From TrEMBL:
Keywords: Cytoplasm, FAD, Flavoprotein, FMN, Nucleotide-binding, Oxidoreductase. Its cofactor is FAD; FMN. Its EC number is 1.5.3.24. GO terms for molecular function: nucleotide binding; sarcosine oxidase activity. It comes from Georhizobium profundi. It holds the Pfam family DAO. The keyword Oxidoreductase applies. This is Sarcosine oxidase subunit beta. Its main location: cytoplasm. One of its GO terms (cellular component) is cytoplasm.
Length: 417
């Protein structure tokens, strides 16, 4: 495939952009593959990419029921950070952050990673104590995170209201400067293009309807809308639909699926220089390169597979945004949408082998898996290739919900973005 470069752009500009290749092909499925990945989100496509690139597999398919990147990958608010509390999480998310920094070069595709800083506001004494504990724990793990007093928080993000009369006054903030955002579609497209270039088959509009197991219990392949496709190994990377798919193989997952919403405003000139999150009032905000404010809400309180969500949830979020940033109170919202997130009891992912031989699962990212995309895909590919976890994902097992060895980011963060 042709390399994207400034020279390629100049050449194409001279001839009306008629010479660009298709970014990936749409092949007919083979009767069988060495590895089938179910789900063409960032994590699934990335897994296929690293399996081909780092582990030398040549016969891989990624099977997607809709269009690639059309799940949570293309619906999220793209916040990237690695300042999680527990050692296991810090290791996993920081592995991802290290990969984000060179991902555009690695994929020869501009994923628009922008380390503009993620600032997490703290509104009461408990928040402040908990944030400072996070900062100390992060530093012990070699992860940047620093405490800002209210004046410093406002200097970092000028539209922020730090008046002490606010209902939720800003008592300070934790800032991870290496955190930021990336362009979500570009992540899916970049991995898809690079994986397809190494021979990975990306098969869209092909729902997986069954996972077949042989007489000895091992996986043998998947039933799909386009017939049976054999597979020696299967990786399920289906986000909010993971429990449905794993049920096809007879495995009950410790997951609940909730709608999670986001919305964007009309575009305005650059005003918002960073990402701001407030777990207490439950809102987070950044500004896209197009100028829209990108705003995220909390999950609905009930489980559902509808890709919408309750209106009162986004109303509550906008109330919070207007209190923290009164300057935005007259802006109009353009669009809102939802995705389905899969939530584990401890709010940490599962990246592991399963009790069924040949079946692997990558799920449970809940409201915060976009940031992990390259790291998750990288260690999941290792797990599938070697039938054993990478050191980084050793703790993210299914068994932890039986043994009680949890990675309890739920208690640590309240929300997980
Ligand atoms: C509104 C919203 C905001 C978010 N904000 C952030 C954020 O700011 N930062 C952050 O880090 N994370 C965020 N997240 C979470 C993040 O989007 C996800 O954790 C991450 O994108 C999951 O990626 P994935 O590749 O595992 O899943 P997906 O991109 O959802 O891919 C799974 C794919 O599996 C496919 N599939 C499902 N069932 C089948 C089947 N039977 N057969 C074939 N294919 C199937 C789906 O169609 C889908 O394309 C947010 C999520 C939402 C919804």
């Amino acid at each position: 495939m042709r390399k994207y470069s400034i020279f390629a752009i100049a050449r194409e500009a001279m001839r009306g952009h008629k010479g660009w290749d298709k970014q990936w092909s749409s092949p007919e499925p083979r009767s069988s593959y060495d590895i089938v990945i179910v789900g063409a989100g960032g994590h699934g496509l990335g897994t296929a990419y690293y399996l081909a690139k780092e582990h030398g597999f040549k016969n891989i398919a990624v099977i997607e029921k809709g269009w690639l990147g059309g799940g949570n990958t293309g619906r999220n608010t793209t916040i990237i950070r690695s300042n999680y509390l527990y050692d296991e999480s810090a290791g996993l998310y920081n592995h991802a952050l290290n990969l984000w920094e060179n991902l555009s070069q690695e994929l020869n595709y501009n994923v628009m990673y922008s380390a503009r800083g993620v600032m997490m506001l703290q509104h009461n004494v408990h928040d402040v104590q908990s944030a400072k504990r996070h900062i100390h724990a992060n530093r012990l793990n070699g992860i940047d995170n620093e405490w800002l007093e209210p004046d410093a928080a406002k200097a970092f993000c000028p539209p922020l209201n730090i008046s002490s009369n606010a209902r939720y006054p800003v008592m300070g903030a934790a800032l991870q400067r290496r955190g930021g955002v990336a362009r979500h579609d570009a992540v899916a497209w970049g991995y898809a293009r690079a994986a397809a270039d190494m021979g990975v088959h990306i098969i869209q509009n092909c729902e997986v309807t069954g996972i077949r197991r042989g007489a000895n219990g091992d996986v043998t392949g998947v039933d799909t809308a386009r017939g049976f496709i054999g597979a020696k190994k299967i990786g399920v990377v289906a986000a909010g639909h993971t429990s449905v798919l794993m049920d096809m193989a007879g495995i009950r997952m410790p997951l609940e699926s909730f709608p999670l919403q986001a919305l964007v405003s009309e575009p305005v000139k650059p005003i918002f220089p960073c990402v701001v999150m407030s777990n207490t009032v439950h809102a987070y905000i950044s500004q896209s390169d197009k100028g829209e404010l990108v705003i995220g809400a909390g999950t609905d309180q009930y489980t559902s597979y509808s890709q919408t969500g309750g209106l009162h949830i986004i109303q509550h979020t906008l109330d919070a945004i207007c209190e923290m940033f009164p300057i935005f109170s007259r802006m109009k919202m353009l669009r809102s949408w939802g995705g389905i997130v899969d939530v584990t009891p401890d709010r940490s992912p599962i990246l592991a082998k399963t009790p069924v031989k040949g079946l692997y699962v990558n799920c449970g990212w809940g409201t915060g898996g976009f940031k992990a995309t390259p790291g998750s895909a990288h260690v999941f590919a290792h797990t599938i290739a070697n039938d054993a976890p990478h050191k980084i994902n050793e703790g993210f097992t299914l068994e932890r919900f039986r043994t009680g060895r949890l990675i309890d980011e739920a208690a640590a963060a309240a929300v997980a973005h």
